[in-house]
Design goal:
Residues 1-16 form the signal peptide. The chain is an alpha/beta fold. The chain has eleven helices and seven strands. Helices cover 40% and strands 20% of the residues.
Length: 308
């Protein structure tokens, strides 16, 4: 290539601009929705998925959805992946995903597995061109307590040397918020978490972006692209949290305490239904997305060892 450039420079007039190769850009136009199964998946309206679709390369190759759900797998079914391997630790989620997304998938190339990332044999020896961790870190404590570091190591080990790791997460809520609508959202979340704790379950715990980036750096990974997305909390979203809370309250072993929690739940539900701010959508919190690759080796380093 450099010989061709040199020859062209010699043939050009002295005042002509020197030809150079333009650096490739990560950002691309949105690709059309593809069909890989019996039905074409719907086009996503999720801002984070749309952004990832623009910054990831045009050809995704083999893709791992490391903490799959209906939303992420439906989006991936429309992606330029050659194959999709999806993993969930929940039998209920596995049933929901298979039932809800199966028609969008290619049964000869795509698979949905039940597994826990604490199991070292899960996908042992496999590697992928793109690994998606969609709100997975926030769910770790429920399925694999205190395994956030271990999960990042597992995911990093599954990414091919020139591949990509995409991490989507939620910044922890600001529990000092003073306005009434934000406090109502916090009250709904607190009721769910308290009920889970009282029924001897681990709660979900959101992990901030700064912590994730710090741990990625320690693993030799580099954040190539990152973006924050303001969160708009709707009435349906908070009511969904209260449905979840009610399910957890039913597992609280003490009858009188369970009755008090159900009474508190009814009061919260009435307040949410009456909230005009939630009906419009209330700005509260933010989510983040990061596109990560292995860091390039340092100059002078050979086979992973720094020169002395």
């Amino acid at each position: 290539m450099w010989l061709l450039v040199l020859l062209l420079q010699l043939l050009q007039p002295s005042d002509a601009p020197i030809m150079q190769e333009a650096p490739p850009s990560l950002h691309r136009a949105r690709a059309p929705v593809r069909q890989r199964g019996r039905r074409r998946p719907p086009e996503t309206d999720d801002a984070i998925f749309r952004w990832l679709g623009q910054v990831l390369p045009a050809h995704w190759g083999e893709v791992l959805d490391a903490g799959t759900g209906l939303d992420s797998l439906t989006w991936l079914a429309a992606s330029p992946a050659t194959s999709i391997t999806a993993v969930t630790a929940s039998k209920t989620m596995h049933k929901d995903v298979v039932g809800g997304v199966a028609d969008f998938l290619d049964p000869s190339a795509d698979i949905v597995l039940i597994g826990n990332w604490q199991d070292e044999q899960l996908l042992h020896g496999r590697s992928f061109d793109v690994v998606i961790a969609d709100y997975l870190l926030g769910a770790v404590d429920y399925f694999a307590p205190h395994f956030q570091d271990g999960l990042l190591r597992r995911l990093a080990g599954l990414v091919r040397p020139d591949g990509w790791l995409a991490i989507v997460g939620r910044e922890p809520d600001d529990i000092t918020a003073k306005d009434a609508t934000s406090q109502l959202i916090l009250d709904a979340n607190a009721l769910r978490d308290a009920s889970m704790t009282l029924s001897r379950q681990m709660t979900y715990r959101e992990i901030p972006q700064w912590w994730v980036q710090e741990r990625l750096g320690a693993l030799g990974l580099q954040v190539r692209e990152a973006k924050l997305f303001p969160r708009q909390v709707t009435k349906d979203k908070v009511l969904g949290r209260l449905v979840w809370a009610e399910k957890e309250i039913r597992n609280v072993p003490h009858g009188s305490l369970r009755a008090s929690l159900l009474k508190h739940l009814a009061g919260l539900r009435a307040r949410v239904q009456a909230s005009r701010a939630l009906a419009r959508g209330h700005p509260f919190g933010q989510d983040y997305a990061m596109l990560v690759q292995q860091s390039p080796p340092q100059q002078g380093a050979r086979h992973g060892l720094s020169s002395v």
